[in-house]
Structures are given as structure tokens and as C-alpha cells.
Amino acid sequence: MSTNITESMNNALKGCKELPITGVIDYIRGVLQGWFYERRTSALKLTTQLTTAADVAIGVKDDQARYMRVYPITFYTFLVKDGDLDGHMDLTTKTCTCREFDVDQLPCAHALACIRLRGFSFPDYCSPYYTSAFLVATYSGEIHLVGQPSE
């Protein structure tokens, strides 16, 4: 699948180019209905607190975090040394010198090293947008057939 939205939509809609506009709209409805159903079904099968993509990202960053040295400044602030970018990490404001935590709202490797040191739960420091519950809510909407033009 392409990451370019135009290419993706052109590919998805190539089967309706010769239809009248009402047929095109109905075709688009069918495509979206299928996408929502597939994604809703997948989301409902998740058994983890975070989405699959967030779990994978956390796993990769956690592997990096295991090699970092963490020096507490206060209970929630730390100096983290990773051999490249030594920086300041604040768990209360969810900010880090690397800015990854601030921007992505998903803990960076520095944050994960600090969270692990304190024994906190990783998902508690992730934006709600990365949770399985939010993903289920995203695809909870239903796409229904619109009545015939004569109705």
C-alpha cells in the first residue's frame, strides 16, 4: 500500500471511473464501509493496552533504553546519558531534550529508561491516541447506504 493518499485513493477507486456520479458515490461508500469494517474488526481483536504500532515502537525504543544511564535529579526529573545525546528528562511534563517525547507524545528511549527506573507503566506515559480503546472508538462509526434518488 502506498503512503501517498492520492495514489491510494486512485488505486481504490479505479473500478468506478466509468460510472455516473451516483454510482461513484455508492462505490466510494462501499470501499469506506469495507475499510471501516476491517479496521474495526482488527481493533476489537487487540488484547494490549496500546495499538500494535505503538507497542512495536515502544519495544524498539525500550531496547535502546536498556543501554542508557539514568541519574535522578528529583523523583520525576533525570539526567539521561546515552553516549550521544545526554539530556534532561521530565516525566511530569513529558518533555525530553531530544524533543521526541514532546512531539510524538510517545515515550522516547530516554523517557523509557526513566520510566523503567521508577517502575512505572509505559502506557501511562503515552497519548490516549495510541491506545487500543481510542483505535476502537475511531472506527466505531458506521457507514450506511443512502436511499435512492427517487425516494
UniProtKB/TrEMBL annotation:
<dbReference type="GO" id="GO:0008270">
    <property type="term" value="F:zinc ion binding"/>
</dbReference>
<keyword id="KW-0862">Zinc</keyword>
<feature type="domain" description="SWIM-type">
    <location>
        <begin position="76"/>
        <end position="119"/>
    </location>
</feature>
<dbReference type="Pfam" id="PF04434">
    <property type="entry name" value="SWIM"/>
</dbReference>
<keyword id="KW-0479">Metal-binding</keyword>
<dbReference type="InterPro" id="IPR007527">
    <property type="entry name" value="Znf_SWIM"/>
</dbReference>
<keyword id="KW-0863">Zinc-finger</keyword>
<dbReference type="InterPro" id="IPR006564">
    <property type="entry name" value="Znf_PMZ"/>
</dbReference>
<protein>
    <recommendedName>
        <fullName>SWIM-type domain-containing protein</fullName>
    </recommendedName>
</protein>
